[in-house]
Amino acid sequence: MKKIIPIFLIGILVLSGFGASAISEKERKTIAPSLYTDEFDMVIIAPEKFLSSIQPLIDHKNSHGVQTFLKITEEIYGEYDGRDKAEQIKYFIKDAIEEHGINYVLLMGGRKGQLPNYYIPGRYVILDDGYFDQPYLSDLYYADIYKNGNEFDDWDSNDDDIFAEWGKDILDLEPDVYVGRLPCRYLFEVKIVVDKIIEYETSTYSQEWFNRMVVLGGDTNPGIGDPFPNEGEAVCDYISDMMIGFDITKLYCSYGTLTGHAELLDAMNQGCGFVLYEGHGLQNRIETFDPNGNPVEPFHNKYIPFLRNKGQYPICVFGCCVTAKFDVSILNIFNPNRFGRSDCTLEEIGWRLVRKPNGGSIAHIGATSVVWGYTGDVNVNGIPDSVENGLLGWINAEFFRLYIEEEYQFLGELHWETIRNYCNTFSVHSDKLDCKQVQEITLIGDPSLKVGGYPTV
Predict the structure, then answer these.
(1) Residue 384, phi then psi, degrees to nearest 5
(2) ∠378-380-385 over CA atoms, to 5°?
(3) Cα–Cα nearest to 88, from 49, 123, 124, 113
């Protein structure tokens, strides 16, 4: 027993991301300038221990005209009041908008290893959708800064210290700044994602592989959905039709081109600009059904090490539940509020793909909770209700419409303008499911990412 204890303690330190920062006070101030009269485009918020690995990203962004500075969390907690750390960060973002004119906020940090503490906390909100009544994460909290014009929106209008309670708190919900999160748990992950962003933005432009898109799905809800019984495929078809200029690879259960993980692994290893999935999801995998109602598992965390698509990183849009649920941990086995056994995993599949070295994805858009979608075609107009009437299918279709038709070029704009348009189209203040959709869809990635990269000089 005496020999086991030191090994166990070392393991806990490793899992918690333990390690002291080697950045001196002088170096820290060089990395995070206090030029509060200057105009900037983006602020990166991160703990002090990540600073040395973030500096190359700051230099890269500045060299491409995205004026960027860094603010460390320890400074925020010492300078700003708030009922908790999340609110302190939100007050800082408000100041950064008003004093620096920023458009982008990159939250660089997630859980501290596998422990329940966070480098940058998420905000848990309360909404019982009739199926899932547990609190869920919403980074819209950090993007929705104002209500009633220029009044700070704390998402707790009744002042009971419970946030975004359906029927009790009055929320604005429209984003005021473009937020993305890279939920790094360890210092080595920071270097991986920084290197991938720089590589993507400097080498992707005009590359043939970027003009390939992979779409995959099956029969999301067996036995219903006519005249579109294969709901996942129907959404993928609708979006594929708008992707002018892209070579579409359709991995469909009904075609026999999607039978398991091998097809997606092969398609991603050939390189592609986007991956769109429509179906079911769990924290560490995705699942759908073939036309006979048999389950199909298109991908799982355990297959990610076999991705060999270095330098050809797609943006992944997963239309399913919980693939962006960045609070998973193997220690959730002790959490009575865990969302099933899949909450007890090292990391969610969305982040695992993004932080995969020499492969994987460059960004992931997914949900932190249970999502919903429509089926069928009630008005018999030939358009699936899943993309016409709102909820997740509409959101994913609008994301790609903004890219193709309105030519948005930066990832954060694509994501958050999609959310804004949803708020202005559907009943987010009076319909639970509409509200939940905009709260839970999360961008795991750099919000200032230039989709398709920058032209070479």
Answers:
(1) -55, 135
(2) 50
(3) 123
Count of alpha carbons within 13 angstroms of residue 214, beta-carbon side: 25
Calpha distance 351→182 (Å, rounded): 8
Q: Where are the domains of the chain?
A: 199-444
pLDDT tens string 230-259: 999 999 999 999 999 999 999 999 999 999
Distances (CA, A) of 79 to 72, 203, 240, 270: 11, 39, 48, 48
pTM beyond cutoff 0.85: yes
CATH of region 199-444: 3.40.50.1460
Task: Please say whether the beta carbons of 285 and 301 come within 8 A.
Answer: yes
Q: What are phi and psi of 69, to 5 degrees?
A: -135, 170
Distance of CA 397 to the CA centre of its chain: 17
Report how far residue 321's alpha carbon sits from residue 24's, in angstroms, rounded to the nearest whole number.
42
Report yes or no: 416 and 178 within 8 Å, Cβ to Cβ. Answer: yes
Reading the block at residue 119, the tokens are 């480098």
| 39 phi-psi bin (left φ>0, alpha ψ -120 to 50, beta other) | beta
User: From the centroid of its chain, how far is CA 273?
Assistant: 17
Which candidate, 83, 76, 74, 80, places its Cα nearest to that of 163? 83
How far apart CA 56 and CA 40 sit, in angstroms, is: 17
Contact 197, 362 (CB under 8 A): yes
**pLDDT tens digits along 24-79:** 333 333 334 444 448 999 999 999 999 999 999 999 999 999 999 999 999 999 99
